[in-house]
Design brief:
mainly alpha; 24 helices; 76% helix; disordered C terminus
Length: 514
């Protein structure tokens, strides 16, 4: 592909993102605008924004690459990512919005009345955010660098600079507009080229993946056995992945923070339903690219470039100016994926850093901007020095950490009045350290084999129940430490806003504040 096409696509997406951000700056005047867009984002716009930031490089590029390399058993990734919103809808969305919190640490402190729980939660938000940001910067360099003719680190640097420009001056209000635009851009960038690629496939007489040569030990029958090609214990690995993706969604800081921007709990539920529809439709598309890749680009597996199958197919199957234009459209979509997810993560991490780390007599918006710079610079530098891990793999580890920490805290904190600060702290420590051990093992390059490798490589199946059990047992042993305000707080979480408004002025305070 002519590198000018790829560079033009990146430039156009960057300029469009910045222009939308500038427009959003005009609407951002208060601290509430920066943190939660003044809690005034409707379900349709918010659902598009959530979908935009949730569809990261792991979704846009990684799912197709996994299907190409390992077969249809890798569909557990998008299924789990989408199903996670169903769990979020049923258990968390509306009560979390009614809590009136700005961040996950805000919720933890309000529910348990404990400063230590807040600080541990803040540390976990930063850890999960940085863990999620690292593959965005690495992926931008590895995928877009060769296609645009730039050095790998430069593409990651451009992502960081564009994200910072929007976050620093517009905050959540600006990023909401940007992320909503980027969802529809990513959907278009995958859907339009797919139409032409499917026409080529039909014209070739419906060739099937089973006719491709075996590369790297992968053959047609491997499609039928879950994770058989990536794990010595595929059943365990599959179920652990499902647990991580289904339960980790509710603990991702950049996802949860968006529900604070809804006007009320009812709007939060409606937002989640629309998100399920938008994500469900989007995730039908990447597996088709992976299937076409098994027919037309199996050489990418041996070359270690499976994640690039989405960007390679237009040039391989169509070629010429048409193929270059379609590939440029997909490069623009991929770049938008890096930008959207990085923006959401930067907002979430910056919010926590500005409240719990950066102290002193500094204006809240200035603290937020300092936090945003740290939220981008630190993971970018880490991405330069760490071993390269596949985009989808690294993101899956972030889900495992979120599922092992914030999932038990949110579920028990919302639905069980007996949770205490001691129990929550114990569960966060146990779930955090055990899941982060698996992350560290993968990032530094694992030399383990057998069961130990699988237990650390896919830890969620044992770390999530361990964290739940620790919180429950720790709370039962410290019943005297149940927060004295728990009953009032639980009523606030579970009482619909319309009922609060009907009960007179004594309860209107909760509705107005929440």
């Amino acid at each position: 592909m002519n590198q000018a096409y790829g560079l033009s696509a990146v430039a156009i997406v960057s300029v469009a993102t910045l222009l939308l951000g500038v427009w959003g700056v005009r609407l951002s005047r208060t601290t509430s605008d920066f943190f939660v867009a003044s809690r005034s984002v409707g379900p349709g716009l918010n659902a598009s924004a959530i979908s935009g930031e949730y569809i990261s490089a792991a979704s846009f590029l990684g799912v197709a690459g996994l299907v190409l390399a390992f077969g249809a058993d890798m569909l557990w990734y998008p299924i789990g990512w989408t199903a996670g919103y169903l769990v979020l809808l049923v258990l968390v969305a509306a009560p979390l919005r009614r809590s009136g919190a700005y961040t996950l640490p805000d919720f933890a402190e309000a529910r348990l009345g404990s400063r230590p729980v807040r600080l541990v939660s803040s540390g976990l938000v930063v850890a999960i955010g940085w863990l999620y940001l690292i593959p965005q910067f690495q992926g931008a360099g590895l995928i877009l660098g060769p296609l645009t003719g730039s050095r790998p680190w430069l593409a990651g640097a451009v992502v960081g600079m564009v994200v910072l420009a929007n976050v620093l001056y517009g905050g959540m209000r600006s990023i909401t507009l940007v992320q909503a635009f980027q969802y529809w851009l990513k959907l278009t960038a995958l859907l339009v080229p797919l139409i032409f690629l499917m026409m080529v496939w039909l014209n070739d007489g419906f060739p099937s993946p089973s006719s491709t040569p075996v590369i790297g030990g992968i053959s047609g029958h491997d499609w039928m056995e879950p994770m058989a090609t990536v794990s010595a214990h595929p059943v365990y690995a599959t179920w652990s992945l499902v647990v991580a993706t289904c339960l980790g969604t509710m603990g991702l800081p950049h996802v949860v923070v968006r529900f604070y921007t809804n006007p009320d709990g009812r709007a939060a539920r409606r937002t989640t339903v629309v998100v399920l529809a938008l994500l469900g439709f989007f995730y039908l598309i990447p597996p088709l690219y992976g299937s076409l890749g098994r027919i037309y680009t199996p050489d990418l597996i041996a070359a270690g470039r499976a994640d690039a199958v989405v960007l390679e197919l237009p040039m391989r199957l169509i070629g010429g100016v048409g193929g270059s234009l379609l590939a440029a459209l997909m490069i623009g979509g991929a770049f938008a994926a890096f930008l959207a997810t990085s923006s959401g993560l930067t907002i979430a991490v910056a919010g926590v850093l500005s409240q719990d780390v950066i102290s002193g007599r500094i204006h809240p918006i200035r603290r937020f901007r300092i936090g945003a710079m740290a939220a981008v610079v630190v993971p970018f530098l880490l991405a330069l020095g760490l071993n390269e891990v596949s985009v989808a793999r690294s993101v899956g580890l972030a889900f495992a950490v979120a599922a092992s920490t914030f999932c038990p805290l949110l579920v028990l904190g919302i639905w069980w009045r007996g949770l205490t600060d001691v129990g929550a702290l114990a569960g966060l420590f146990i779930g955090g350290w055990t899941s982060l051990a698996g992350v560290a093992n993968s990032l530094v390059g694992s030399t383990l084999h057998g069961w130990l490798a699988d237990l650390l490589g896919q830890p969620a199946l044992w770390t999530v129940p361990l964290s739940f059990a620790t919180m429950v047992v720790g709370s039962l042993l410290t019943k005297s430490r149940v927060s004295p305000s728990v009953n009032r707080f639980m009523v606030r979480l579970h009482t619909p806003e319309t009922l609060l408004l009907d009960r007179g002025p004594s309860t209107n305070w909760a509705a107005r504040r929440g």
